[in-house]
Amino acid sequence: MATRSDPLPALVEAIAAALPARRPLPLHAPVLGAAEKARLAACIDSGYVSSIGPEVEAFEHALREFTGLPGVTATVNGSAALHLALRLAGVRPGDEVLMPALTFVGSANAVAACGARPRFVDVSAETLAVDPAALEAHLQATTRRAGDGLYDRRTGNRIAALMVVHCLGHLGAMEALAALARTWGLPLVEDAAEALGSRRPQGHAGAWGLASALSFNGNKIITTGGGGALLSPDPDLARRARHLATTAKQPHPWAFRHDAVAFNYRMPNLNAALGLAQMRRLPLHLEAKASLEAAYRLSLARVPGARLFAAPPGSRPNRWLQLLLLDDPDLRDPLLGALHARGLLARPLWEPLHRAPMYAHCTRAPLPVTVDLHARGICLPSGADLVEAA
Ligand SMILES: *Cc1c(COP(=O)(O)O)cnc(C)c1O
């Protein structure tokens, strides 16, 4: 029952006031129009709709230009790109990969696809990504180094890599994390699925890792229907990813010769055609999302009981999803209920992965920040279509 101190009605009003009047408003709808239809029609007319075609190369070129990263291989989805990134980082069956529990399940599934297991570490309340201090404390307390690698002191399992996830498009403290990875001899992989367009002064998401993965799923900042890309500062690594994504087929005009067990992970040309139209919209999406954040911030400024997450100074996130952090975790589900009743389809953060049955037995560090953010966080409707000029 509402009391005079119940902050819920004022929060619902403030959120609704920042948004257009139409209902329902999904969490993140794609923006598609005449440009996408024209690109798709031209692609169909060309006959090149599958895994060979000029649109894939043009899309990869556009991604290279936009991110400044020289190695780009487009894939069927972000999960496939992440699987390739981990494989090429040297993750093997029986290994463990350091990663956050506060992420989409696809991050952990890519580790499992290598036959490896997640090893969960906590995130930072400032960045939402892996916390360098918590990571270092965990490494000092639980691991030992031997000539060729890093091992769990108790189980003897090899710890093969560090995977940082740029949560909701917010970049981690990448200089500190990259320095730690170097010190401990761990290859660094970035799950940048949510972070196309996110930058720090030193570079775009993906600039620190050996390899990283983007996603172009329908709910991401741009979409190819389904799709992803492996990015790397090393063009040769991206070439090896392309080979593995193309059933390791040796280039030849007619012969079918394959030189490794590999995957059918290349992005089809049809999806790349959609991606080319979407890349033209990306700068507008970034602007629209900055305007939406400003509108939420203004609207929520004087409402008690919650605050909008803000990126640390110096970071330029893509603002994929807006995160509202409530003071009182008991308010989260009632607020989600009230917003859904108004057609505002907000969502909680993902259930932390150490609670998922298939990952519950994985080794983990203490995860207090992960648990707290999950308990108090609500992702607000955040699509680029929620601002008039988009
Ligand atoms: C979307 C997403 C993925 C997976 O991408 P798909 O294209 O859906 O396979 C992986 N990690 C994170 C953090 C994501 O948000």
Structure description:
The protein is α/β, with parallel strands linked by helices. It folds into two domains: 8-31 and 282-380, Aspartate Aminotransferase, domain 1; 34-279, Aspartate Aminotransferase, domain 2. 36% of the residues lie in helices and 16% in strands. The chain has eleven helices and 15 strands. Helix 7 (174-183) links the parallel strand 6 (158-165) and strand 7. Helix 1 (8-17) crosses helix 10, helix 3 (54-67) packs parallel to helix 9 and helix 4 (78-88) crosses helix 5. The longest helix is centred in the C-terminal third of the chain and has 32 residues, at 269-300. The protein is globular, with a radius of gyration of 21 Å. The model has no long low-confidence stretch (mean pLDDT 96). Pyridoxal-5'-phosphate binds at residues 77-79, 82, 103-104, 106-107, 165, 191, 193-194, 215, 217, 228.
Give helix % range. 25-40%
Largest sheet: 9 strands, mixed
CATH architecture of the largest domain: 3-Layer(aba) Sandwich
Q: What structural class is derived from the secondary structure elements?
A: alpha/beta
Q: Which spans have pLDDT < 50 for at least 5 consecutive residues?
A: none
The figure for the number of domains is 2
Average of per-residue pLDDT values: 96
Ligand names: pyridoxal-5'-phosphate
Oligomerization state of this entry? single chain
General form? globular
How many helices in DSSP terms? 11
Per CATH, the superfamily of the largest domain is: Type I PLP-dependent aspartate aminotransferase-like (Major domain)
CATH third-level topology of the largest domain? Aspartate Aminotransferase, domain 2
β-strand percent reads: 15-25%
Q: Specify the CATH class of the largest domain.
A: Alpha Beta
Query: If you compute it from the alpha carbons, what radius of gyration comes out, rounded to the nearest whole angstrom?
Result: 21 Å
